[in-house]
Structure formats: C-alpha cells, structure tokens
Amino acid sequence: MEESSAGMAKASEGDDGVLQKLFKMSLSAKEAGEAEITRDDIKSSDEECNRSLFGKVVGDRHAGLLGIKRTMGAIWRMQHSMEVKEISKIFFQFIFLSQEDKKKVSAGHNWMYGNQYLILKEWFHGLHSNHSCFDEITLWVQVLNVPLNWMSTEVGQKVGRIVNKVKNVVGCKVGGDVGSFLKLLVAIDLKEPIPRCTSIKLGNQKVMVAFRYEKLVNLCYYCGMIGHLDRNCSKRLRYFENNCVVDGQFGDWPKTSETFAGGRSMQSDSSGEKVDHPKINPVQGSFASDNIISNVGKQEIIKSNESGNHSPLLFGELGSSSAKNGEIQEFVRVAEPTPTNVAKPVEDD
Fold this sequence. Notes:
alpha+beta; Alpha-Beta Plaits; 2 domains; eight-stranded mixed sheet; 17 strands; 18% helix; globular
C-alpha cells in the first residue's frame, strides 16, 4: 500500500532522528499495530500533490512562509491564486489551482528567494528535501582562454564533463575586452566545490582554461560550495577552532555579471564605446527555456544540444517561443546587420 504523498513528504522532514530512536525501542501492542487505509483516504492529498511543485531553498538562511509566498507570487505573476505550505524551514509545497500556472513555473529555471536558489521539482513517490534530485542546479559557464581553432562543440562537451553533465554548448564571438569563449550549460553538483579551471591538451600542446559562472549566488569564498557564505563555512570554522590559518581558495572572480548568448550583454555602439545596459533583476530566474538564446544583438553562434546536433546560426533578436506537447519550440528572427544593432534590456511589465 502506497503512503499518502503529502504524509510521505512530511514524515521525511525533521522527524528522522525521532524515528531512528523508535526503531530501536521495544513497542507496546498498541504501538506495534497498524492503521489500515484505503486509496479513497489519500485521494485528496494525492491530487493536491499532483497539482504542486516542491521547492527547496539552497542556503543556510531560513525562508519564511509568508515571505516566500509573497515574493514568488509576485515574480511568477500567475493567472490564479496559489497556496503555499511550509514542510520545513527550507522546504515548501506550492499548490497551484491552474495546471497552466504550474507548467509555466515548472518550465522556468534558476528561481531565487533571498539571494538563494529555489529548486523546484514535480511530485513523485518518496520525494523529500534531502533527495538527490535537489543536489543539482543548471548554470551557464563561460570557458575562457580556449584557442580559436579549438572552439568547437566537441571540445565544449569534453571540457564540460569536468564540471558535470553538459546540456548545451554555445560558441560566442563577442569581441571587445571579452573576446571569444565557449559557453556551457551544465548541471552543477551542489555537494562539491565549483570547478575553477581545467586544462585542455592536444598532443604536446596544453592550455589552461578558466571558468566563470553566470547568475552565481550564495557562493562560499572559502570552500567554493554553493549554499552558504564564508562566515558560516563549517570548514573554515573547524580550522579556526584548531588554531589553523588556511587561506580560502575562492573569491568573487568565478562570478560574472555579463551574460552573453543566454542573458543580457554588454555591447559596443558605432563609436566603439561600451554600452552598459541596465540590468533588471540580473540573477533572478527566468520563464525561458534553458535552451533558448535571449536577445544578444548580432553574434555568430555555434550551438549544440543534448542530442549532439549542432549547426552555425546567426542570431539576431529572439522571437516568441511556444509550448506544444510539452516541448519548447524556438522561433528566431535574424536581424539585419547595422552598426548600432545592440541588445535592449527587457523592461518589467
């Protein structure tokens, strides 16, 4: 007999210590008994879970129920109301009245609350806040110092495996101080420090490449883990308690506020002067699919996806995207080449 989905999630939050103690104790006849339930008993709670997304806040700062409901409700701008239940201080159930609202939010990525990532998952039997499905987030990673003749999707795939699973590869030629670089959409393992660099070797030629992460927040500059800041780093505190002085090996340099071919960018006008477009909520999540390239002006891009298909594309401005049978379709309009064809920031409604 399957347990109630809501009950299963609740029992997994904060009660493990109590249950472990009870398993080791001798139970009375009443305590050893069973309460027989039927599927009708769990029908309403099961339906509720199927209309829900379960969100885990990745961080060491607790999220309040009222605050997260108001904040995410304002960001998601749903057509219908939403109920939020606090399962634990970092784990929440978002119950949607409309399946369309749920699909809209679920299709987005990199949502944040209080400068901490909010990872959303659909309900499945056995889901709880410590499930491995919450151990990854998807981020764009810029790979710097790749030789021009090595900038291929195949190289991007191999470099990306050092970070983790690669979902997409984009080659960006943006010019200016930034130059050219590979850009990877990768699944970041939250149980490990973020990789800072690696080396690429071709025969006797070896080149070190550096990683920069777009929309990276809540990074510990001491241990390189996502989910806490250095002042709360347990590793640093252990060294301090043992009277050891060990310098941190990270900083703010793995972050980049500039996003190319996947976010807002800094372009140059006809005079050659840089135009720094205002950023509106630069690190907040997006309803756009991870595989959709947003407004970046006219750039030459080589793009590949998980299936390995790739082709050179000349991207201008991004047209609309629509969902059909659960899939995101891309519609791209190529802009005419003009000296002042720069990306415009997306204004709030």
